Amino acid sequence: MILRLYCAAVLAFLSLPIVVAVGVAFGSDKIARFPPTGLSLRWFGVALSNPTFITALGNSVVLAALTTLLTIVIGLPAAMALVRHRLPGQPVLETFLLSPLSLPGVLFGVAMLFFLGASGFGLTGWGILAAHVVIAVPYVLRTTLAVYRGLDRGLEETAGVLGATPWQTFWHVTLPLLRPGLVAGGLFAFLTSFDNVPVSIFLTTARTTTLPVTIMSYLVNQDFDPIVGAISAVQVALVLGLLFLLDRIYGIGQITSLAGQ
Length: 261
Prior knowledge:
Blueprint: H1 2-25, H2 42-48, H3 51-84, H4 90-98, H5 105-119, H6 125-148, H7 153-161, H8 166-194, H9 200-203, H10 211-221, H11 226-249, H12 252-260
Helix pairs in contact: 1-11, 2-11, 3-6, 3-8, 3-10, 6-8, 7-8, 8-12
């Protein structure tokens, strides 16, 4: 009982900033006030008519989608190689691929900034995409490894005995079995990219700025006002919509359990 109350208190504390931001967004006051004195949707119209926020939101969605796709393309074969083949220095290689999880985001952002400058790439969309892929690959790799190591290899061998080619075995047997791990890893990769600030703030430009960086810049130059609350509420709604969709398909409990393995 005490543990449940403690967990509920921690969850309420962590959710309080979201509640305040959303509450401000629905307020009718011209300044940020919580609780609001009245209810209104006017600030959503103001926020969604602001081209700066809309462009940044589009950049974030596209960047997160591309990051998710590339992390799956990279993480899936890496996981298969680590599980099904004996590679030289395999534990070291796996630790290296998962190491971005333990690297401070600010440190990685500064390092990536120097690397892009020294390599001649500069601050481009490809540079920030590469940075997001590096920090997101471990999520796909970790969940896919957890699923693949629990599979019965006899299923793949049986498909081969029955005449399936290696590609047919992968497409019709291995990939469907790995789909929960890929979905779990892809979800966390998308959210990691979509909400990232420590890395993005060093690598974005006026054309490639993301929504979290735009919100932070707005708060630095302006006071916290209902416009920020409204665009933050839209961001929260997008994330919750994605989580609801995946919960209906796979179940959030299964996804989070895979991420914790």
